[in-house]
Amino acid sequence: MKLEKLGSDQWFTDHANELCGSEQGIARITAVDRGRYILRNEDGEVPAELTGKFLYSAESTIDLPCVGDWVCVKYHDSGKFAGIHTILPRKSFLHRKTPGKNIEFQMIAANIDAAFIIQSCHFDFNVRRLERYLVMVNDGHIEPLLILTKIDLIRPDELEQLIMKIRQSGIDTRIIVVSNVTGAGIDEVNKIMLSGKTYCLLGSSGVGKTTLINQLTVGHNKLKTKTVSGTGEGRHTTARRQLIILEQGAMIIDTPGMRELGILGAGDGVDDSFADIHELSLGCRFKNCAHNNEPGCAVLMAVENGKINEKHYQNYLKLKKESEFYEMSYLEKRKKDKAFGRLIRSVKKHKKK
Ligand SMILES: Nc1nc2c(ncn2[C@@H]2O[C@H](COP(=O)(O)OP(=O)(O)OP(=O)(O)O)[C@@H](O)[C@H]2O)c(=O)[nH]1
Ligand SMILES: [Mg+2]
Ligand SMILES: [Zn+2]
Fold first, then answer.
1. 242 lines ligand 1 (CB under 6 A)
2. How much distance in Å is there from the Cα of 234 to the middle of ligand 1?
3. Measured from the CB, is residue 122 less than 6 Å from ligand 1?
4. Is CATH 3.30.420.40 correct for 3-87?
5. What superfamily would CATH give domain 267-347?
6. Closest-approaching ligand to the CA atom of 317
7. Are the beta carbons of 299 and 277 closer than 8 angstroms?
8. What is the pLDDT of residues 266-322, one digit of tens each?
9. Is-above-0.85 flag for pTM?
């Protein structure tokens, strides 16, 4: 398989020429499972590990490879095993704040052309969460698309209402409605996906991400899925992120459902996802208006006269605040890490003397 079919292009080739050693080749990461990697190159799949030097020089989790990354590798055992030396720059990425108290990034996937944000019409539907996913996708310079699954479980008029709720929140992203049971909408998804392009599926556990991939897969090679509980809560059936190449040539990354979707340093992502509010804000009297209670605030005015949905506005403020708060803590922490790194290095130097 040619590397272009795996999503490579002149841009990656140029970077590879610049960054990879002469005895190294490039390959794409198709699966990550706790420090172990699977790569794909012209010849097929190869297991791989990070070199010691790579691990040593990685300063943060964003420096570690994730699914979809292009890397410089050196092969061992006549191509049966590879060491990862360098990550090529990412054209796009998906990351979130690591779950829990730790303020750190977690890379989800890289070099994605479009992301399908998936919600089920049954139990899972939540516009505020949709907005959160949109921030994450927009922030990573990825085209978002929305998919509503399990339409076989609700009436057509109920589906209309859900779509209206999304539109009323000022979200104008394309929506595809799908049933993995009846097969409705599968063709539409298939048509969107182009050969050589990479897509990612995002959404809670149990919404039908893996089932959708199986619908797009002809014949065997089907992935594992499990029935959800009565409340619609999934069981985290997909345990790792992996990139799958469909027969039609498009690549798709399946991810495990995420419980926490923390936003970190995603200011631009928030503005892009709340474009209606961002546009209005240009009309605020003060340039640094926070749209809380400032006089002459165009956003507040629009909320008051019903032009902007109140909950949509509240979520905007919330996400903006969260993103800024974590960003500040993150920068603080990085500064300390760097100082600590310098300390260690100077201690080592001192000892050598
Ligand atoms: N009725 C109905 N059930 C569906 C549909 N799509 C998926 N399901 C069922 O929902 C359950 C969960 O589907 P999965 O594909 O495993 O969900 P997932 O999003 O991959 O979940 P995680 O891997 O845990 O993140 C399975 O029992 C599917 O058969 C649909 O369109 N309609
Ligand atoms: Mg799954
Ligand atoms: Zn304002």
1. no
2. 8
3. no
4. no
5. Probable gtpase engc; domain 3 (1.10.40.50)
6. 3
7. yes
8. 778 888 889 999 999 999 999 889 999 899 999 999 999 999 999 999 999 999 888
9. yes
